[in-house]
Design brief:
Length: 76
């Protein structure tokens, strides 16, 4: 593509975008929230043996001893 054709296409896209945005109602709404950080109450940790079974059932890779096998950093 030549530079002039790209420039015309960009101007056309910007014009269409500005026309579409011109129809949007830009009225702002503010919400008052009394509690900013909502957290749960801490409790004693509990060991649930069913959790490990369920997690291992959906694990994509595990060894014979029941440990997860994870690939680390292959995308780096």
């Amino acid at each position: 593509m030549d530079e002039e054709k790209v420039r015309r296409e960009a101007e056309r896209v910007l014009k269409e975008l500005s026309e579409a945005l011109g129809e949007i109602n830009l009225e702002e709404t503010y919400y008052v929230v009394e509690e900013i950080n909502v957290t749960r109450n801490d409790a004693e940790p509990e060991l649930n043996p069913e959790f490990r079974k369920a997690a291992l059932k959906i694990a994509p890779h595990k060894d014979d001893e029941g440990y997860y096998i994870a690939e680390v950093g292959s995308w780096v």
